[in-house]
Every structure is written in C-alpha cells, then in structure tokens.
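Whether sequence alone determines local backbone shape is best considered at the level of individual chains. For completeness, the protein is quoted in full, as a sequence line and a line of structure tokens:
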Amino acid sequence: MGRIKDDVGIALPAIISTIAQFSVTFVTAAFVGRIGEVELATVSIVQNVLEGFALDVMLGMGSALETLCGQALYNFVKLSLASAIMLCLELWYFTFVLLMVGWLRNPELAVAAISICMNIEIWVLMVGFGFNAAISVRVSN
C-alpha cells in the first residue's frame, strides 16, 4: 500500500499540470463555441491538427526521456524517436477521425460535436499520462 501511495504522490503533480495545460485549449474552444458552429469547428481543427502535431512529437520524445534520464542510457535518440512515432500514430488517429467527420452532411456541427467529445476524452488521457510519468520515474530509479 505504501508503494501505491508513493506512485500516486509522484503521478498527482503530473496529472494536475497536464490537465491545467490542456485546460487552456479546452477553455479557448468553449469560448469560441459560443460565437458559432463554424468558428468552433475551425478552432477545433487548428487545435487538433496543427497544435497536436507539434505537441505529439515532443510528448513522445519527452516520455522516453523520463525513463532514460534516470538511467543515463547512450541510445536516447533511438528510443525517443521510436516513442515519439508510437505516440504520434496513436494521437494522429484522433486527428484523422476529426478530418473524416468533416465529410459528413453537416460538417460544422459534426466537427464541433466530435471536438467536444475528443477534448473530454483527452482530459481522461491526462490521468494516464501522469501515471506514465510516475512509472517512468520508478523504472529509471
């Protein structure tokens, strides 16, 4: 039980910081959604495609860095690029779904609805990323 308490103690700050960081884009989408459906669809595409592309690469490389920094391994670039590609493929799936939804009959409403669902789902994923950071710290030590 003590080990779980330690892991949660490590994971909780990471969870809180990632949720707070992601909340900026969520609040932006919420305010833009009050303007109109087309505006919300536009902001959702920008957030998920353009911002997501850059963030996914850095998040993948950073997740490999969490484990490797504690062990001081020489093959950081090889493992971090593999981790970045794996994470990018996983998160780009959501981007592809968002773009495919734009082909439906009422694309403004469909993209706006799917972006709201994806924002809520990503909030849930932030808990997993926090525990990923905690586990990486445990493995590296």
About this structure: The two ends are 19 Å apart (CA to CA). The chain has a mean pLDDT of 77. The CA atoms of residues 33 and 40 lie 5 Å apart.
